[in-house]
Design brief:
InterPro entries: PP2C (IPR015655), PPM-type-like_dom_sf (IPR036457), PPM-type_phosphatase-like_dom (IPR001932). The protein is an alpha+beta fold and about 525 residues long. It is built from 13 helices and 21 strands.
Length: about 525
């Protein structure tokens, strides 16, 4: 069941700012419904043989009926429209599909309005968790707040703390209440905003990693030690266990921030989720084309830039081991992430916290890779990119797709822009993959850096049919990533149960944001929500 609730309190924003919309959605457990026995397919599965060695065997599985597949694809979809007083209608959809059980992805969004209603800050995020969902869930509830606080400090030129409500509201109010010539507002520029977002990410991760250490320090100060027990046992400390789980699991994070006052778009990426924009360009024949603008770089150990960075941050004798087989220390694929304390805490700290929190409840911490020497090997610092918006110009950037890597494992940025462009144009039914490019022409403005180079897409997307059957744009993309109009392929991939499906597809979360200008007559805030 979807969870939706605001996470900036009314009291916090009771003065100059108020939340227009906020939601956190984390998909629930997966349920499977099977058809009759003659509706089956065979799946290669790796199992352990009697001699202990692994071997591949074929397992016969039942196929889900299309009715069940449609229901599962659409059950976590949301769609919202916000008609803003400054004449722009904002639309966004989000949908998630689990492969892990429970899903490790999460997402959130929030719109913060100036007191006079003439400007907004719009935040959209997707999170791709790994080694559990603890980190991604925490990020979905708190990262937007952390960035908003950092931006408020920038605007107010203050050192407000998170507990200072006055500083938070006054800082954000300064964005619009002071004249452009004011020195405070002058700091609100692209370099400073980008730096503020970076700092918020890094500081959030520092607090995340320090939390279980702080609880241990408090226990020591309270005298929970003895000669017989020099190391406290906090394995039953609920807060301690919660903070440990959030620190040792991990998550990639992708954030889009729309600043409507300055007409700026910022994309902050930590990890291998990806943001892609569609830019509309009219042509002489009057038909137009969609330019593909990849707004983020995949930060993985397959990205040459990241490999160079990692090697430069560690002694030369580790050059051959920092990245092995396209993974950090041969283990972790994303080179930037929140949490993942096994790649960040020094070994003595890992051993101590393992003894304090994990051993007593029978869940000891996995040891880091054998080549672990000079941590940290992973950082939460994002790469922030910027694009100028022209909200009233139809010949400009028109939509942004944010998605976890489960989508990009299967679809290219060009295919995603084509699918969104076709959906916005009103295409319906099934269309051959060879025909769609002629109906929705695209060109590459910026291909970005593909951090998945060397990995093949998990399925061919060059043959077969695309499907235009979903109202929700995000669900539309997920369906087409998994088979589209080829129902047999779609039924097979969707019928693989949890425990097996992760070898064939990842969790997928997709958010699509687009906007329309020329809504000046609608001066009231109107929010239309639907589950599609």
């Amino acid at each position: 069941m979807a969870l939706t609730k605001p996470f900036i309190s009314t009291g916090m924003l009771r003065r100059a700012w108020k939340p227009i919309a906020a939601s956190i959605v984390i998909a629930g457990p997966v349920y499977y419904f099977y058809t009759s026995r003659n509706q089956t397919f065979e799946l290669p599965v790796r199992v352990k043989a009697s001699d202990g060695k692994k071997e591949i065997v074929k397992k016969t599985l039942p196929l889900l009926p299309m009715k069940s597949i449609d229901s599962r694809l659409r059950e976590n979809g949301i769609a919202e429209t916000h008609d803003r007083p400054y004449g722009v209608a904002w639309h966004h959809t989000t949908s998630s599909l689990a492969s892990n059980d429970p899903i490790e992805d999460a997402h959130s969004h929030q719109i913060i309005q100036s007191d006079d209603g003439k400007s907004d800050l719009l935040f959209f995020t997707v999170f791709d968790g790994h080694s559990g969902r603890n980190t991604s869930q925490l990020l979905s509830r708190t990262l937007i707040n952390a960035v908003a606080l950092q931006l408020s400090q920038l605007a107010a030129n203050t050192t407000a703390s998170l507990s200072s409500t006055k500083s938070f509201t006054d800082g954000l109010w300064a964005l619009w209440s002071k004249s452009p010539s004011n020195s405070t507002l002058a700091s609100w520029d692209v370099p400073n905003i980008s730096s503020a977002i970076e700092n918020a990410f890094v500081e959030f991760d520092r607090v995340l990693l320090d939390a279980p250490i702080s609880i241990l320090k408090q226990a020591i100060q309270e005298g929970k030690l003895s000669a017989q027990n020099p190391v406290p046992d906090l394995s039953n400390n609920a807060n301690g266990i919660q903070t440990m789980q959030a620190a040792i699991s991990g998550s990639c994070a992708l954030m889009a921030l729309f600043d409507t006052a300055q007409q700026d778009l910022y994309i902050a990426c930590t990890g291998d989720s990806r943001a892609v924009a569609g830019v509309w360009k009219p042509t002489e024949d009057g038909k137009g084309t969609w330019e593909v603008d990849v707004l983020s770089e995949d930060q993985t150990a397959r990205n040459p830039k990241e490999v160079e960075r990692l090697r430069s941050e560690h002694p030369s004798d580790e050059a051959d081991n920092v990245v092995m087989n396209g993974r950090v220390l041969g283990g972790l694929e994303p080179s930037r992430a929140f949490g993942d304390a096994r790649y960040k805490w020094p070994m003595p700290m890992q051993e101590l916290l393992n003894q304090v929190y994990m051993v007593g409840n029978g869940t000891p911490l996995r040891k880091p890779p054998k080549t672990f020497k000079t941590p940290p090997y992973v950082t939460a610092r994002p790469v922030v990119t910027h694009r100028k918006l022209a909200l009233g110009d139809p010949s400009s950037l028109r939509f942004v797709v944010l998605a976890t890597d489960g989508l990009w494992d299967v679809l290219t940025p060009e295919e995603v822009v084509t699918l969104v462009g076709g959906h916005l144009a009103g295409l319906k039914g099934t269309i051959s993959k060879s025909t769609l490019p002629s109906l929705v022409p695209t060109s590459i403005a910026n291909a970005g850096v593909d951090g998945k180079a060397g990995k093949q897409l998990t399925r061919s997307t060059k043959q077969g049919l695309w499907a235009f059957v979903d109202d929700n744009l995000s669900t539309h993309l997920i369906r087409n990533a998994l088979g589209g109009g080829d129902e047999n392929e779609l039924r097979k991939i969707m019928s693989i149960p949890a425990g097996m499906s992760r070898s064939y597809r990842d969790d997928i979360t997709v958010t699509v944001v687009w906007w329309e200008a020329g809504k000046e007559a609608q001066v009231d805030s109107i929010t239309a929500k639907s589950k599609l």
